[in-house]
Design a protein that fits this description.
The chain is an alpha+beta fold and 586 residues long. Among the domains are: 128 residues, Beta-Lactamase (2-Layer Sandwich); 79 residues, Beta-Lactamase, CATH 3.30.450; 46 residues, no CATH class; 125 residues, Heat Shock Protein 90, CATH 3.30.565.10. It contains 16 helices and 17 strands. The protein is elongated.
């Protein structure tokens, strides 16, 4: 009742704040808990599944090796020389016995050579014979009386012995060996005539389980009596019953992994020997990633809770709406829309800020318009100044050439020159238009080349090949002529041999590129790189390229920074300039 009375007496703003915080935090806490639980479960299952695959793979590799050991023993059992030697008593003649022993030792060594990782193969016969595949010293006692021998002859299959430094046949005090035995039955009489022992170094089995299970996990092998075959801790190998029956059992439903104290135990049984490959993984390592995620989620929850509390507190003070409106207007201005107007119905600081922002936008529009008009006027003055600098000089040289042709009575050449210069100026004037068709621009360039070819007939030839499909698109006028002039005066005239100018064009989906290629002197790599850098807007680095730069700036002024000139050149071979413009119909 007291809580209900307190709640009823709260103001609306405080109630709104309380509801917002509760409705925000509870879903976030629930989602965070679910996310952590799912992450924990998935990461643990993935780690266990991966470890099970590693254990299974190690078991398969071990089984394949055990099959090879069994095959080696079978080869020795079926070896005719061994069968023959074991069914006859040992000779009293020492030399005969020595030769027989040498022969069988060679046969065993030959069998061992077929299989890798075998330490040795030995034959112990009922008639007292002892044979070996290596140079180890055989024990002197009667090995047919040993428990190992009796265990082997009592079974009709391979018998495996756990790891020990006491080998069944040879003297050994250093290396840990795993041994296996198979009885030999005489093919003629059917009687047991002896056994075959095979020794394998413990390190061979250690290699099978050498794969890491995480940073601190490991694998080991035990036999059917829970004796260790191999273990990362070699001191444990002499211990037996490492795992009791409860910990060595699988989980219900046929699972081969289960928990033991703070570890996950994964078991895989060998189908060849009955041994088990066991993987051990610390549980805290499996959940390490989930703990990191748990901390990360907790941090996010804390930040979100703080933010939600502060945000709810600000909302009830009625500042969200005016700020949102102003933010939207600012983003429009950021995107380039300067036509935004803001009028605030609030009389507080937010309203004053909105009014100031609107005033700033209006002033920016006026300033940009003023700067654009000034820059445009300046650019037009620069273009006209360039034309005045180029045209008188060219006109003088052309008229001078006409005079000399007239004095030489070359009337046809005079007429050709006059017609060309007339067309040249007609297209150049173009009734005051800045934009003409590519067809007209090519005619303008052709007339200029005719005039220059007449003046320098022995210096160059030229050819123009422009596809009809691009001729009706528009271009800024008098673009090609300055580039051709540059090719003649700074390229072809610099070489002694006769040059050539080739003008072509190619088109793409949204642009056209006109190429002017000359076989002039070309440029060095350093000069070419500086020229292209200047055209990309870098400082000019004392290069006299006023005419080229003016052409490039005119193109960029009309079409944008993605268009303009680009040069390619090889010193002593020639230069190609690319004029890139957009596809626009005139």
């Amino acid at each position: 009742m007291n809580l209900s009375r307190v709640y009823s007496n709260l103001s609306i703003n405080k109630k709104f704040l309380l509801h917002f915080i509760v409705l925000s935090l509870i879903p976030i806490l629930i989602l965070g808990g679910i996310a952590y639980f799912i992450t924990y479960k998935i990461s643990k299952e993935n780690a266990i599944n991966y470890s099970e695959v590693i254990v299974q793979q190690s078991t398969r590799e071990m089984d394949n090796f055990l099959i090879e050991v069994n095959n080696a023993a079978l080869m020795a059992v079926k070896e005719p020389d061994i069968q023959e030697s074991l069914r006859t008593p040992l000779s009293d003649d020492i030399m005969i016995r020595y030769n027989e022993e040498l022969k069988l030792n060679k046969r065993l060594h030959f069998i061992q050579s077929f299989y890798d990782n075998l330490y040795g193969i030995y034959v112990i016969s009922e008639n007292g014979g002892k044979y070996k595949s290596n140079s180890r010293v055989v024990k002197g006692e009667d090995l047919t009386k040993s428990e190992n021998y009796k265990s082997v002859i009592s079974q009709n299959k391979m018998v495996w012995f756990s790891t020990s430094s006491d080998a069944p046949v040879v003297k050994n005090n250093v290396e840990l060996l795993v041994s296996a035995g198979l009885r030999i039955r005489d093919k003629l009489s059917g009687n047991i005539s002896g056994i075959v022992y095979v020794d394998i170094q413990e390190s061979v089995f250690s290699n099978f389980v050498g794969a890491e299970l995480g940073k601190n996990g490991y694998m080991y092998i035990i036999d059917e009596h829970n004796n260790l075959i191999t273990h990362p801790n070699k001191d444990l190998i002499y211990q037996t019953n490492l795992l009791d029956s409860s910990t060595s059992k699988n989980l219900m439903d046929g699972s081969n992994s289960h928990s033991l104290d703070d570890f996950i135990i994964i078991e895989e049984k060998s189908s060849v020997s009955g041994w088990k490959v066991i993987g051990v993984i610390p549980i805290n390592e499996l959940t390490k990633e989930s703990k990191i995620i748990r901390g990360f989620i907790a941090g996010i929850l804390l930040i979100v809770c703080i933010f939600a509390t502060v945000f709810a507190f600000l909302i009830y003070r009625n500042i969200f709406t005016p700020i949102k409106e102003m933010t939207i207007s600012m983003k429009k201005v950021e995107a380039g829309d300067l036509q935004v107007t803001m009028s605030s119905r609030y009389k507080d600081e937010i309203g004053q800020l909105s009014n100031s922002f609107s005033l700033m936008i209006r002033r920016m529009r006026r300033l940009i318009a003023k700067v654009y008009k000034e820059q445009e006027s300046l650019r037009q003055a620069e273009l006209k100044s360039l034309q005045y600098q180029i045209n008188p000089h060219f006109l003088y040289n052309t008229l001078d050439s006409i005079v000399w042709l007239a004095r030489a009575n070359k009337n046809d050449e005079v007429i050709k020159m006059i017609l060309s210069i007339t067309k040249l100026f007609r297209i150049g004037i173009s009734k005051g238009k800045d934009i003409i068709t590519i067809q007209e621009e090519i005619e303008h360039a052709d007339n200029y080349l005719i005039i220059q070819k007449t003046r320098y007939s022995k210096k160059f030839d030229y050819k123009i090949e422009i596809p009809d499909s691009v001729k009706q698109y528009s271009i800024v006028k008098v673009i090609l002529q300055p580039l051709i002039e540059n090719a003649i005066y700074h390229g072809i005239k610099m070489k002694k041999e006769k040059g050539f100018i080739y003008i072509s064009a190619k088109e793409s989906a949204d642009s056209i590129t006109i190429l002017i290629h000359d076989t002039g002197i070309g440029m060095s790599k350093e000069k070419l790189e500086k020229l292209n850098n200047v055209l990309m807007g870098q400082p000019e680095e004392s290069m006299s390229i006023y005419g080229i730069k003016n052409v490039d700036e005119r193109l960029k002024l009309f079409y944008g920074r993605n268009y303009g000139l680009k040069f390619r050149s090889v010193f002593q071979e020639g230069t190609t300039v690319e004029v890139k413009i957009p596809k626009v119909y005139s």
